[in-house]
Amino acid sequence: MEIKIDRRVKKTKLSLINAYIDLIEQYSEHEITVSMIAQYADLNRATFYAHYSNKEEFLEEALCDVLEGLREAILTPFENKDRINVNSLAPTTVQIFDYIEKNKRMFYALYTSRSDFKKHIEELFFDIFSKDIVIEVKSTVSKIDYDMFLHYQSNATLGLIFYWIQGRFQYSAEFMMEQLTVLSNAQVVDLKRV
After folding, report:
1. pTM tops 0.85, yes or no
2. What are the residue ranges of helices labelled H in 27-145?
3. 77 vs 67, which has greater pLDDT?
4. For a Cys-Cys bond, which of 2, 23, 43, 114 suits 47, CB 3.0-4.6 Å?
5. Closest to 89 (Cα-Cα) out of 186, 160, 184, 155
6. For residue 130, with 0-12 CB atoms within 10 Å meaning exposed, 13-18 middle and 19 or more buried, which class applies?
7. Which domains are present in the chain?
8. Residue 187: CB partners within 8 Å, gap ≥ 6?
9. DSSP conformational letter for 179
Protein backbone atom coordinates (compact mmCIF):
# COMPACT_ATOMS: atom_id res chain seq x y z
CA MET A 1 0.00 0.00 0.00
CA GLU A 2 1.36 3.39 -1.00
CA ILE A 3 1.56 5.96 1.76
CA LYS A 4 0.03 9.29 0.81
CA ILE A 5 1.84 12.34 2.09
CA ASP A 6 -0.31 15.11 3.46
CA ARG A 7 -0.52 18.08 1.06
CA ARG A 8 0.58 20.44 3.83
CA VAL A 9 3.69 18.35 4.44
CA LYS A 10 4.49 18.38 0.71
CA LYS A 11 3.97 22.13 0.58
CA THR A 12 6.17 22.71 3.63
CA LYS A 13 8.96 20.51 2.27
CA LEU A 14 8.75 22.19 -1.12
CA SER A 15 9.00 25.62 0.57
CA LEU A 16 12.09 24.48 2.45
CA ILE A 17 13.70 23.08 -0.72
CA ASN A 18 12.95 26.26 -2.68
CA ALA A 19 14.37 28.36 0.15
CA TYR A 20 17.55 26.28 0.17
CA ILE A 21 17.89 26.58 -3.63
CA ASP A 22 17.54 30.38 -3.40
CA LEU A 23 20.08 30.53 -0.57
CA ILE A 24 22.69 28.34 -2.28
CA GLU A 25 22.69 30.83 -5.15
CA GLN A 26 23.69 33.56 -2.67
CA TYR A 27 25.80 31.80 -0.02
CA SER A 28 28.22 28.93 0.26
CA GLU A 29 26.80 25.69 1.63
CA HIS A 30 28.57 25.94 5.00
CA GLU A 31 27.13 29.45 5.57
CA ILE A 32 23.54 28.25 5.22
CA THR A 33 21.91 27.33 8.52
CA VAL A 34 18.62 25.72 9.43
CA SER A 35 17.45 29.10 10.73
CA MET A 36 18.22 30.73 7.37
CA ILE A 37 16.36 28.01 5.46
CA ALA A 38 13.32 28.22 7.73
CA GLN A 39 13.28 32.02 7.73
CA TYR A 40 13.66 32.21 3.95
CA ALA A 41 10.79 29.71 3.59
CA ASP A 42 8.72 31.92 5.93
CA LEU A 43 8.53 29.10 8.46
CA ASN A 44 9.94 28.67 11.92
CA ARG A 45 12.77 26.38 13.00
CA ALA A 46 10.31 24.13 14.85
CA THR A 47 8.57 23.40 11.55
CA PHE A 48 11.89 22.43 9.97
CA TYR A 49 12.69 20.13 12.92
CA ALA A 50 9.22 18.58 12.74
CA HIS A 51 10.34 17.08 9.39
CA TYR A 52 14.13 16.76 9.68
CA SER A 53 16.54 16.21 12.53
CA ASN A 54 19.24 18.37 10.90
CA LYS A 55 20.35 20.01 7.65
CA GLU A 56 22.22 16.87 6.52
CA GLU A 57 19.03 14.78 6.70
CA PHE A 58 17.19 17.50 4.77
CA LEU A 59 19.83 17.49 2.01
CA GLU A 60 19.94 13.69 1.95
CA GLU A 61 16.19 13.56 1.27
CA ALA A 62 16.57 16.17 -1.48
CA LEU A 63 19.37 14.12 -3.04
CA CYS A 64 17.34 10.89 -2.85
CA ASP A 65 14.35 12.60 -4.48
CA VAL A 66 16.49 13.90 -7.35
CA LEU A 67 18.17 10.53 -7.88
CA GLU A 68 14.85 8.68 -7.84
CA GLY A 69 13.40 11.11 -10.36
CA LEU A 70 16.43 10.66 -12.61
CA ARG A 71 16.14 6.87 -12.33
CA GLU A 72 12.48 7.05 -13.38
CA ALA A 73 13.36 9.38 -16.27
CA ILE A 74 15.95 6.93 -17.58
CA LEU A 75 13.74 3.87 -17.23
CA THR A 76 10.44 5.40 -18.47
CA PRO A 77 11.14 4.76 -22.20
CA PHE A 78 11.46 1.04 -21.39
CA GLU A 79 7.98 0.71 -19.89
CA ASN A 80 6.53 -0.62 -23.16
CA LYS A 81 9.73 -1.60 -24.99
CA ASP A 82 12.57 -3.97 -24.39
CA ARG A 83 14.93 -2.47 -26.99
CA ILE A 84 15.76 1.08 -28.12
CA ASN A 85 17.88 2.02 -31.15
CA VAL A 86 20.46 4.65 -30.16
CA ASN A 87 21.73 5.70 -33.60
CA SER A 88 19.21 8.51 -33.50
CA LEU A 89 18.07 10.57 -30.54
CA ALA A 90 17.37 7.94 -27.88
CA PRO A 91 14.28 8.40 -25.68
CA THR A 92 16.45 7.83 -22.60
CA THR A 93 18.61 10.79 -23.62
CA VAL A 94 15.51 12.95 -24.07
CA GLN A 95 14.20 11.93 -20.66
CA ILE A 96 17.52 12.54 -18.89
CA PHE A 97 18.03 16.04 -20.26
CA ASP A 98 14.36 17.03 -19.91
CA TYR A 99 14.34 15.90 -16.27
CA ILE A 100 17.55 17.76 -15.47
CA GLU A 101 16.34 20.91 -17.24
CA LYS A 102 13.02 20.84 -15.34
CA ASN A 103 14.94 20.48 -12.06
CA LYS A 104 18.01 22.49 -13.00
CA ARG A 105 18.01 24.73 -9.93
CA MET A 106 17.96 21.68 -7.66
CA PHE A 107 20.69 19.97 -9.70
CA TYR A 108 22.82 23.08 -9.50
CA ALA A 109 22.22 23.41 -5.75
CA LEU A 110 23.19 19.79 -5.07
CA TYR A 111 26.13 19.96 -7.48
CA THR A 112 27.57 22.99 -5.69
CA SER A 113 26.68 21.99 -2.13
CA ARG A 114 27.31 18.24 -1.97
CA SER A 115 30.81 16.99 -2.60
CA ASP A 116 29.40 13.49 -3.08
CA PHE A 117 26.78 14.49 -5.68
CA LYS A 118 28.86 13.34 -8.67
CA LYS A 119 29.61 10.03 -6.96
CA HIS A 120 25.90 9.38 -6.32
CA ILE A 121 24.96 10.12 -9.94
CA GLU A 122 27.79 7.86 -11.17
CA GLU A 123 26.58 5.05 -8.89
CA LEU A 124 23.03 5.51 -10.18
CA PHE A 125 24.18 5.23 -13.81
CA PHE A 126 26.33 2.16 -13.11
CA ASP A 127 23.47 0.53 -11.23
CA ILE A 128 20.91 1.16 -13.98
CA PHE A 129 23.19 0.13 -16.84
CA SER A 130 24.41 -3.00 -15.12
CA LYS A 131 21.10 -4.23 -13.66
CA ASP A 132 18.15 -2.68 -15.52
CA ILE A 133 19.42 -1.84 -19.01
CA VAL A 134 22.17 -3.50 -21.00
CA ILE A 135 23.95 -1.51 -23.68
CA GLU A 136 24.55 -3.76 -26.67
CA VAL A 137 27.89 -2.98 -28.29
CA LYS A 138 29.99 -4.33 -31.11
CA SER A 139 33.52 -3.71 -32.23
CA THR A 140 35.37 -4.58 -35.42
CA VAL A 141 38.68 -4.27 -33.58
CA SER A 142 38.43 -6.60 -30.56
CA LYS A 143 36.13 -7.95 -27.88
CA ILE A 144 34.73 -5.22 -25.61
CA ASP A 145 34.93 -5.60 -21.83
CA TYR A 146 31.42 -4.51 -20.78
CA ASP A 147 32.45 -3.20 -17.37
CA MET A 148 35.14 -0.99 -18.92
CA PHE A 149 32.75 0.14 -21.64
CA LEU A 150 30.10 0.99 -19.04
CA HIS A 151 32.59 3.14 -17.10
CA TYR A 152 33.77 4.80 -20.31
CA GLN A 153 30.27 5.52 -21.64
CA SER A 154 28.82 6.59 -18.28
CA ASN A 155 31.69 8.95 -17.55
CA ALA A 156 31.45 10.46 -21.03
CA THR A 157 27.70 11.08 -20.61
CA LEU A 158 28.08 12.34 -17.05
CA GLY A 159 30.99 14.55 -18.08
CA LEU A 160 28.67 16.26 -20.55
CA ILE A 161 25.93 16.59 -17.91
CA PHE A 162 28.36 18.03 -15.34
CA TYR A 163 29.72 20.43 -17.99
CA TRP A 164 26.12 21.58 -18.57
CA ILE A 165 25.51 22.07 -14.84
CA GLN A 166 28.82 23.91 -14.32
CA GLY A 167 27.93 26.24 -17.18
CA ARG A 168 24.65 26.97 -15.42
CA PHE A 169 22.62 25.42 -18.21
CA GLN A 170 23.72 27.87 -20.90
CA TYR A 171 22.51 25.44 -23.57
CA SER A 172 19.01 24.07 -24.02
CA ALA A 173 18.19 20.47 -23.17
CA GLU A 174 17.50 19.90 -26.87
CA PHE A 175 20.99 21.07 -27.85
CA MET A 176 22.58 18.88 -25.17
CA MET A 177 20.59 15.88 -26.39
CA GLU A 178 21.74 16.45 -29.95
CA GLN A 179 25.36 16.84 -28.87
CA LEU A 180 25.31 13.64 -26.81
CA THR A 181 23.91 11.75 -29.80
CA VAL A 182 26.49 13.26 -32.16
CA LEU A 183 29.37 12.64 -29.76
CA SER A 184 28.28 9.08 -29.01
CA ASN A 185 28.20 8.24 -32.70
CA ALA A 186 31.35 10.15 -33.67
CA GLN A 187 34.33 8.15 -34.85
CA VAL A 188 37.86 9.35 -34.15
CA VAL A 189 39.73 9.30 -37.45
CA ASP A 190 43.23 10.52 -36.60
CA LEU A 191 45.24 12.31 -33.97
CA LYS A 192 47.08 15.33 -35.31
CA ARG A 193 49.81 17.29 -33.62
CA VAL A 194 49.16 21.04 -33.53
Report:
1. no
2. 34-40, 45-51, 55-75, 91-102, 104-113, 117-127
3. 67
4. 43
5. 184
6. middle
7. 1-52 (1.10.10.60), 60-184 (1.10.357)
8. none
9. H
